[in-house]
Amino acid sequence: MKFNDAQRVKIRTLVNTMGERIPFFWPMRNFIHHNPLYGLEDLRFEEALKWGKRLFHGRTLPPREHFVKLFKEGEIEERFLDDELRSYLREKDAEAFFSLFKTYLLEPSLRPYRNAFLEPDERLLSYARRKNSVEAFVEAFERKLGRELGLDEAADRLFGTHLKERTEEELIRACALFLDEGQSVLGMPFREEGFFNAWKRVFRPETEEAIAEEAIFNALNELGIKDEFVDEFVTFELARLHGWSGFIRWRSSAKEYYWQRKHPANLVDFLAIKLLLFIDYAREAGVPYSFNEILSFVKERPLEALIRYDFFTGELVPELWEEVEEALKGRRGWPEGYAELKARAWAGSRRAFLEELFRRAGEVYDAEKAVRFLELLEGFEEGLVWLRAHERSLISRLVSSVRVKEERRKPFAQALFCIDVRSERFRRHLEALGEYETYGIAGFFGVPISFIELGKGHETYLCPVLIKPKNVVVEVEHELPKEEGDSFKEVLKEVLHDLKNNVLTPYVTVEAVGLLFGLEMIGKTFFPLQYARLKGFGRGERPSKLIVDKLKREEAEELIRVFEREVVARALERELKVKNARSNKELVEAVRRAALEELDEQELVRLLGRSEEEVRRFLKKLRDEYKVEKGYERLWLEKLAKIGFTLEEQVAYVEKALKMIGLTEGFARFVLVVGHGSSSDNNPYESALDCGACGGDHGLVNARVFCAMANKKEVREKLRERGISIPDETVFIPAEHDTTTDEVRFYDLHYLSPAGMKLFEKVVKDFEEAGKKTAYERCKELPVCSCRDEEEAKREVLRNAVDWTQVRPEWGLSGNWAFVVGRRSLTEELNLEGKVFLHSYDYRIDPKGFLLENVLSGPMVVGEWINLEHFFSAADNEGFGSGSKVYHNVVGRFGVMTGNWSDLRTGLPSQTVLRGKERFHRPVRLIVLIEAPKELVERVIKRVWKVRELVLNGWVRLLVLDPIEKRFYAFGPDGWEVLDEGA
Fold first, then answer.
1. How does strand 918-919 pair with strand 926-931?
2. Of 58, 167, 482, 626, which residue is the least packed, with the fewest Cβ within 10 Å?
3. Which pLDDT tens digit goes with each residue over 52-99?
4. Residue 914: in which H helix or E strand, if any?
5. Which residues pair with 476 in a beta bridge?
6. Within this chain, do residues 693 and 795 fall inside the same structural domain, yes or no?
7. In this structure, how many other beta carbons lie within 10 angstroms of the beta carbon of residue 565?
């Protein structure tokens, strides 16, 4: 079949569709927690685990040793373990095997060992012969080839080649070179042409295929991949280096990502290069490499194939090692009795295992029962039995401890914290100090922002990754010189700074940008009298304010005129060699207007004293290269229109956030809005410790923006019309909780009156005290901490924040297991050990469930991502996590590899989820408890497809506390269930 446009579309659709099974991997500088099996969430959890193991070659559940340890510690209750085991055996009609299976579960050392051998009985030997026959090998090989076993792996295991290693190493090298974001001194050439084209020109100029789709089309034909399993083949090939493919997949979806626009790459390019590399190396090796060739070899020479496979995978029966080596050299034939010898060895090791199992279970060995046990053991989901028992134990303890209580009286101060599990400790200690009322809300406080930081020039999205912000917030210096410190000049200065690195930048020459946006230009243009003093202003924390209000049309137009004049002045000096052009304001303005076709060119000829042709060429260059042109003015206006929020937007955001958490009356004198971030040094995973709701960044800016809105008189007047009356004396104060040191810093205290400032001293003191207690409690969990009191703990956490050798400055969100949606009174008397997400919600002001819908579809989904990132990173840290930080090398400024060459490490490092060889994070699915009427929750779940999918497919465990019935319910794949005493 010839390649044509229809085939091109088909190939691209195939790759992109199959790539949906591969989870996104975001750049490390904004680490986004995600479910590693996100692409499988349309499947039942149990089925997805099997797929995940096949695709990503990682363990999806912890081993027995982990669960047995929890069982012995009392974390897993025996009644639930027994119940889950009996339920499983009942489905298999095998309840008589309960004692054997429970003994097996509780004895991690009980397993077959190759060096433990007893003479097998005939019944066991017969079973072993069936399992280890040549026919069974061929059948399993055919079933896995191309789906679980790559063609390169198959060739390696049959012929001792190293095709997989060579292919992946070269592919990783190509990815690292092409995707580099400034780490390498010399960049890969031709990258602007796209990944496949650049790779072809640099490494394979002889490649005949013009485009990546054609290369894939030809490769699939050459490899003999049939239509009936091409979907599985493509999915499997993309998943084998899922870190690199996940990053490329994310990159290709991020249309505004600078590096993707500059150097485009996609999964089609990735797969084309991978397949071409494999074919090249396979041809060079001279071994069968297509699907049909490999399968034909196995079917035509099955005994030889079995022996070769076992030899090159290290599974060969030891007695035949030398004999097989001779056969591989062609010096002798293949041992005919190999299958029988292998079966006897297999049966002998199982007999020893079974004898010991029966003995420990208090039963007499029975050959028939032993073989049936082995048959049942093949499909035994031991990890799921343990997992369900663990989850039910946690559910039981949570349900038995939660209480519905009346609200407390009006507090001295209220504090809004992020739902992050680390806030739980701080909230608990703060509440214990006095009349404080705390709330939990997603740490972006419901205000999605694109932020331009003072001293930077690019936008940072401060919101969940599922949201694209529409409003830009610009940070400016708080104290500008008096002579030029009016609001408009502040806006003008910082918006000009914004233009340095935004979408307008490519339209201006590098030299013009450098001049226009240097500190010198800003200083001399806007506050020349103070420039000398400002010039010496170094790094460190600068007082700043945020531009939250929308620019007026006339202000935006004036900004553009200032920008155009600066560009024109530079163009005059560079292109026409006009000296000190900026000082000739009349000339600069005339040139600007002529470029915009607002002034006749003849007038410009007179002013410049140049020929008509020279002036015409200059104006054309000014429009084409410097972009002083009407069309670009409209683009600039669109850009500037994004800065700030309208009054209606501000009212809507504040109203929604306050209603979301149930804070609509009873406002205290102070309302603290506490974002969070972390402090650490030499840590590529630093953003993983920051606020997930802020896109892996700090939450302070969102807190400041929210407070600026909530403190505005006009906003409060509008809120009063909508039923939320905030007293005039109530002040919203932004703060940031450093989760590494447990220090809280307050900002924008100018909102306070002198009298208010005096009262606020108590808040500062209490927060400091709560921070010390939180640090002491948290510090005791760190492996090397020997703190004896709060002061020692304080010193320890401060040291962790600045010690560049510290691989574990804090545990982060490790240990998370539950997500509570409801009033604080449910859990305020509980010590949840900093392991539970707490989202405030009051069903009494949400009769239609729209607020609950927002909580479940946003924060709860993010919580599920965080939970499952930790779940799988702890279950198999090498497979789904990123291994030890000790062996990490940063690549391309966007990720890390282990050693010199590896897949991009996508999960959490061992230092985040493991304590030595044991799991600090205990993998369980997120247990979501909602305080609301059962019928209301049911309506919400029906409305939100994603939440319904997560619940019905078993990715989260959903509980409901009906405050009217005062009864707990569980809802899942099997519908509703009343919880009497627990789970």
1. unpaired
2. 482
3. 999 999 999 999 999 999 999 999 999 999 999 999 999 999 999 999
4. strand 914-915
5. 545
6. yes
7. 19
